[in-house]
């Protein structure tokens, strides 16, 4: 295909006026507000609902909310999550929340921050939080274990306190 | 057996004509009940025969009918009868159908439980009518009223009838605003069973199984009304050898296996059809594994062998497969104690060179009745070449009058028909011992058995020129052997067994063998080629067919004929 080029007008051929108009743009930018952020000294505040790294959370009673149902492990598209279930030993400290993961690993190198784990979680135990810059010196370091995930995740209570309610109901009926 | 079957076939089967969802079908008048006795065909059985599934909890084909869960309610219609006991006809000549309605509200249908209502001539069964759906939804809602809905921590999730039916017939939202009944959780019923009473729908399958199948009337329902729950009788425990079957038949997550509890979610598991190796019954099983780790055995239906049951002992006998002392390296050991780890081709080459020097008649082979038929066939080819004395080591134990056999080897009959062992297994062991002592036997091949168990001690091993040990787990003999060949457990290979009653059954591979361990038939075949010059088939089905063609007892049965359920042979 042949592209038809329009020839320059005599004004354009003068060259100097267009050069001046270019400089005008450059100079005007010198007096504007600066937009460059000094990353990593300064960091972005990410908006609400941002999908950063997924971390495990605890409830206000310092209990791991995860019950090791392994739905996130099942749904995870890049297979970044690996959960070790607790096995049959009864953990009296957990009360009526009988199950909790023995180990919970997320391989942050595999994670694609899709948020499926948070969406599928029936216990509201995993949330994509605001961390977007994860670094490490080795591959092993990028596999976050349960302790690290809980530490990073912090506390997040939900409005529905189903386990507490179940425990209360059971206590109320204990003498039936 | 054969004559009986032909008799039954030659007799015309009496049938009943019924209409299922508007389609006229003929169903047999009688169908076998849980004990196999002919009883009038029920609606549920009739529908099953024509491919219509009716949801149910308490009904189980191998248990007496109880009819308590009400989930199988269906709308039925019967031909109306006149005073003259003749059907009332419509204007077009078809019989008039009368549907059952509740006496106090004739607009509501009066369903019949499909599991306990026999079919009658010209009955109309509606498995998917609006009325049937309405009844089903109501029953399911009632069963779910006090259900804890703790699927995330319930082991049954994924294979739970309550889950499945609530997806099909349930509602997304509960209408129940009151407090749910709290029942005991983590109830210790016995050494292998834990009960969560809240999840129970009181179908009594476990009670009926224990009472009628195992004759151990250990379970019952205690309390009355809202708080009724399954319990053992005071002072007794649910501890017979078949308790874990109740976990399988429990339609919900109430009865849980302590062994499998909180170990793995069922949807992650890869399933492989296999055979239990704990005794000569050869119960058909499904092996559940994930990432090369076995999590559970479950019985697989086979009416000719184990129906749908298996014993707890066999079910839990799988952990040795992941044991630390598994043999995982091919080892060649010099007499001065120096040993080197080698790869399979080197081992096969050096071993066959050493074996080639063995004089005919100076070789003894102790094989295992835990090996597959194909492996024993290859061992027999080797034995024939060396004119070797062969035998297997018997394993005797307790038997019961249900599934457990005293013979704890899964393939004793296979070893017998293939000529590796004799009717009285182990009878040649003494001769082998004697031969070693007298120096007549210079080469001992041990496949899959610990020979120290039959009195072959260090002094006797010292008298041998060559000791070859292939095994799955480490043993003293393996530490002393000149050649160590790491073998694969039955879960790690394919093959077939002949059970105590002469049924050939095949098993499939569930997991990979660890390290350098390899399916025995693969390296046995290479040894046979190197030593005898024969060329056995290079694949397992081919090997089975070859064996079947050369051993008359197998009657020419082909691998593909075995199917999932196996074939009886004359032993």
Would you give an account of this structure?
The complex is a heterodimer of chains A (176) and B (571). Chain A has a domain of 106 residues: Alpha-Beta Plaits, CATH 3.30.70.3270. Chain A contains six helices and five strands; from the N terminus they run ααβαββαββαα. The longest helix of chain A is centred in the first third of the chain and has 15 residues. The relative contact order of chain A is 0.18. The model of chain A has no long low-confidence stretch (mean pLDDT 92). Chain B is an alpha+beta fold and 571 residues long. Chain B folds into three domains: 134 residues, Ubiquitin-like (UB roll) (Roll); 164 residues, no CATH class; 239 residues, Rossmann fold (3-Layer(aba) Sandwich), CATH 3.40.50. Chain B is elongated. The N terminus of chain B is likely disordered. The chains are: A alpha+beta (176), B alpha+beta (571).
Query: What would you call the quaternary organization?
Result: heterodimer
Largest sheet of chain B: 7 strands, mixed
Percent of residues in beta strands of chain A: 5-15%
- The number of helices of chain B is 16
CATH architecture of the domain at 54-159 in chain A: 2-Layer Sandwich
Shape of chain B: elongated
From the alpha carbons, calculate the radius of gyration of chain A and give it in angstroms: 28 Å
User: What is the tally of helical segments of chain A?
Assistant: 6
User: Using only CA atoms, what is the Rg of chain B?
Assistant: 29 Å
Could you name the CATH topology of the largest domain in chain B? Rossmann fold
Q: Based on CA inertia axes, which overall geometry of chain A fits?
A: elongated
Percentage of β-strand residues of chain B: 15-25%
Measured distance between first and last alpha carbons of chain B: 15 Å
Structural class by secondary-structure content of chain B: alpha+beta
Kindly report how far apart the N and C termini of chain A lie. Answer: 89 Å
Helix content estimate of chain A: 25-40%
